Amino acid sequence: MVQRRISKQIKIGNVKIGGDAPISVQSMTNTDTRDVKSTLKQIYNLAENGCEIVRLAILNPQAADAVKEIKSKSPVPLVADIHFDYRLAIKCIENGIDALRINPGNIGKEENIKKVVSLAKTNNIPIRIGINAGSLEKDIEQMQISLSEKMVMSALRHIKILEDNDFDKIKVSLKSSDVMTTVEAYRQIAGKIVYPLHLGITEAGTYAGGIIKSAVGLGILLAEGIGDTIRVSLTDSPVEEVKAGYMILKALGLRQKGVNFISCPTCGRTQIDLISLAKKVENRLTNIDKPITVAVMGCAVNGPGEAKHADYGIAGGIKEGYIFKKGEIIKRVPEENLVDEFINLIQMENV
Questions:
Q1: Which of the chain's ends, N or C, has fewer CB atoms near its CB within 10 Å?
Q2: Phi and psi at residue 130, in whole multiples of 5°?
Q3: Angle at CA of residue 178, ends 132 and 201, nearest 5°
Q4: Ramachandran assignment for 276, one of left (phi > 0), alpha (psi -120 to 50 degrees), beta (any other)
Q5: What distance in Å separates the CA atoms of residue 303 and residue 295, rounded to the nearest whole number?
Q6: CATH for 260-350 (3.50.50.60, 3.30.1060.10, 3.30.413.10, 3.40.50.12160)
Q7: Quick one: the chain helix, strand, coil %, rounded to 5?
Q8: What is the pLDDT of residues 248-262, one digit of tens each?
Q9: Does this model's pTM top 0.85?
């Protein structure tokens, strides 16, 4: 059992962050926020796949204006991602945004920071301080210390600005594209602050490579009890980020939402098209939220035995398969009917 780091709990909309709350999975739209219809369509798709918090890029006043309608129709809490222009933050708060992602030191004069923080405090709007390794302050960048230490120093500087304005509804992230730099930065700050931490490997890459980097970096931190929300950053559909996020959490036993899918590697004993079979089964189980374990195994020699802990399973034969429950074979089915019969059984009992 992972011993979670103790952090101050905040709320983004109706989602609790930190404390004893479950680690939440979030993503970010890649639509033009000014296009309300497309943005809402993507938000609904994300929500249907389990995304609990969605971030929007606010590049201009028109995007900030669009927040009002998007927020009124969104099924999940929304975070406005803002750089440099404090007026965009103010407009987003006025239009009902649930949280901000800003670095207070980057939005101008102290009086402008005070305006944003005061309005956020009045409206109970949390602020995420988001530190990226590639955009540190010049004076910190020039210091002769490790990159992870620079990231922590930057985060502490921004946190102090908010604390000096009597604001403590804070979440913090420290992201690098380098896995171990990210890990070290989070390890260092975890013991220095009480605020919840949002985890991510920034610019992790395309689907396969990005998931591997994220699983390694986030997996190390989550296994050490560090992290309260996560985003798997991929050069791919935001929905794939959400799916990957849950896979990481399920692998660590930290979330039990949806199917825990297991399948064996192919080998010389396999007499069935196992690769195709496994992909078909996994793809057709995405609508199930119950925390069940489903196994697709290559042969009947050791399939039901090795996967006897699975709630449901298939063991391949010669152009046929055996359907089993809790290690007990209940049916023998021709290969062409195997997926349909297996999925029908699972859905009948779990949907």
A1: N
A2: -110, 105
A3: 60
A4: alpha
A5: 9
A6: 3.30.413.10
A7: 40, 20, 40
A8: 999 998 987 778 888
A9: yes
